[in-house]
What we know:
With 886 residues, this protein is α+β, with helices and mostly antiparallel strands.
Amino acid sequence: MRGRTETVMSDYNFTSIEKKWQKRWLEEKTFKTDVRAPGEKFYCLDMFPYPSGAGLHVGHPEGYTATDILCRYKRMKGFNVLHPMGWDAFGLPAEQYAVETGTHPAVTTAKNIARFREQIRSIGLSYDWDREVDTTDPKYYRWTQWIFEQLYKKGLAYVAEVPVNWCPALGTVLANEEVIDGRSERGNHPVIRRPMRQWMLKITEYAERLLKDLDKLDWPEGIKEMQRNWIGKSTGALVDFKVEKLKSCEVEKQEDTVTVFTTRCDTLFGATYMVVSPEHKLVAKWLKEGLIENAGEVSEYIRKASMKSDLERTELNKEKTGVELRGIKGVNPVNGDRLPVFISDYVLASYGTGAIMAVPAHDERDFDFAKVFNLPVYQVVAQSGEQGTGNGEPGTGNGRVPYTGSKAFTDIASGVMVNSGFLNGLSVEEARPAMIKWLEEKGVGRAKTQYKLRDWLFSRQRYWGEPFPVIHWEDGTQSLVPEEDLPLTLPELADYKPTGTGEPPLAKAKEWVNVVDPKTGKKGVRETNTMPQWAGSCWYYLRYIDPLNDKCFADPELLKKWLPVDLYVGGAEHAVLHLLYARFWHKVLFDLGFVPTDEPFRKLVNQGMILGTAYKTKRGVLVPMDKITWRDGKPWGAEPAEEGKEPNPEEELVEFPAKMSKSLKNVINPDDVIRDWGADSLRLYEMFMGPLQAVKPWSTKGVEGVFRFLKRTNRLVTETAVEDRDMSREEAASLARMVKKVSADVETMNFNTAISAMMIFINDAEAQAKKAGNLPRRYVETFVLCLSPFAPHLCEELWEGLGHSRSIQFEKWPGYDESALVENEVEIPVQVMGKLRGRVKIPAGAAADVAEKAAAANPDVAKFLEGKTIVKTVFVPGRMVNFVVK
RNA sequence: GCCAGGAUGGUGAAAUGGCAGACACAGCGGACUUAAAAUCCGCUGCUCCGUAUAGAGCGUGCGGGUUCGAGUCCCGCUCCUGGCACCA
Length: 886
């Protein structure tokens, strides 16, 4: 690959061309946005990266190139384009590096940002670099803290003692989203549950609006659906169950009420037991009051449940566990049945009321539990048309009829109520409101909407994050750092290690922590938690609009002009986290009157992941690239041997795309691609691989293909005589086809087919040049204009070579001549019984009889018509003819 | 289990219900060259038939359906990828 550089350089010297134009763009601020200039705005946003030590990977330029092409195109169409870039730079890796080496995270971060900026510039992306933001810059996080204060003042931030995901290895608490199968997303360490004092944000208060407003967003349906599931709205009812302490059939005590949440209140007649979560407040109360006869057993279960990590809770759930609370019974309000009450960890304290009524006949989980504990299972819903099940006809049953099925019957759509008193004969849909009405009339229940969404755990026990601008005073009060004193900057620390006790590293900065009120002399301590990484990314798109403003986070006039973001492009991995949090903050700022729109991102596009090439064995085991030997161009390798065993025999491997990873050694570095083929080839290939949204495997051969196209373009434009002559009919047609296709495809972001249209054009153009010995100026220049958003460096160079002194970015996007596309004669396919049998040339716009006559006369067609009667003829003008024969 | 998305040549892919495989990669053959690289020209879905021009059949994961006509629309499956998962 390196060896042929010399030959390559002699005709298409991409390295010097790209350096030259990148330098010029930067010096001349070619892409500077005047946010106050008139003109229709286009705000195009890329998800800003975390500047890791590893540098860019080929996934980054994919989305960035797509938006860059669109932005360059929009500028040429006369739009005022805002296209910025910045750094989401708070986060754990820089802090862990600091723990290991003692280097301040700010130093590491600055170094990584410099590298990222350099790499991004080497791709030729048209950002306005005067708008760069960095979430770790005090001038930036001053406003992150300021927004937190607004949330606090609105009552949306509070401190709570909550069971959290504590990761001993990282010495910190993690958000639910950062825990995967009971292990930390970062580092894969075990996570346990432990109650701790934490900052929470009341995102639940916005659940309904976050759900409802999804409908008006132009986002991928899948992402919207994921957010809907995450918010998890369900409508049902709260039902009150009295709890009795019984003593030899006499009610000794009845004062407590357990309220359950259910979406199936229609099945209330079928409830055969109740379950409360081990953490339920009443359980502790009953134990204290001595109501529970088997208190020892119950306490032991509670203790074990609290020790379990989420992973264990999930894993052990294959077999249901629990303990009955002996001595008390719940009373079913609809029929007075006395029900046993259990505690079990299959009921979550954090959802609904932490208590359920169990209807094993019509709920899978209850059914499983009932089988383990041998509890009665009563049928109250039957398949429509089978109402005879149970004790007879609909409308008559009211008994406790055992359900005999082998699994729970949960079909809501076809279910009909049986054995349920006043509900008998109703469908499930009808029975629900009927039961709610009954519950409300008796005062023992009411309709209720419940969400899965929990409040946002907003604090981390880390150093490298935004400090909370909060002071806790010795008298127990709490106050915010005054807005004018922001930012509250991070103190210097000698030692960034987690304390391991859960107390954050900031607690070590004694001078910073301890404060004295200058007026009253009151003593206080600063909050030592820091904000999670999501904080800075929740509002960065607002700061880009007015990044240097030191009076407010952004000028309201400019926000009014530039919001919402017109297009947001990034990876699908942020589907629920970043995008939900950012929407939440935006809505709060909207309610407070700080932003003019209630949603931040109008249109969202997710680019698909780029996979690496990998090879697997017959059994499907992936073999790292450096363990593969090539024989006759075929890959051979062996599965890694188990410890202490004989090595496995080598076998021929099969190509299999897989995520790029260090362990597979198949990571493609954009720097290498740029060195060998240039940034324009990198850009073009990333777009040519396939649709932006699709997951696609990287192919080095594919890069060579687009490189060849650029080389041919360069040669055609620089080595063909360009004349000021009119285009031939053929030239005009091929040019118009290309411009039309490229314009339409860029608008819809189908970059792969736009590039293929330009490849078709260059094939045509080479033939034309050969034939005529020269090419018309308009023909060549229009092509260079169309290619310029895709391969900007080469096109600037060619444009200059064509005698223009101004950057091609300032030119108008070309139109096309519709009349050049009109043809005199068209060739259309002829089918007999829907099978293609021949083609005929007919005048464009020919009438049906003319076309049919010509079609029937075609010898290839005629032989299939011979001896047959034409029953029907289908003619689609300009498209095809089809004969139906008998 | 639930939700979403997908399945088209050797590969990446393209195709308003109207010529399936555009464009590119790989492969094969040729030109140029002492040679190689680069470049250029031609062929390239599968099967059959044939000296060849040509021709025939099959073909968009599987099974049905609608239609003059289905990769595309409808019904029923299979497999893959991602997300969620004891949320009552």
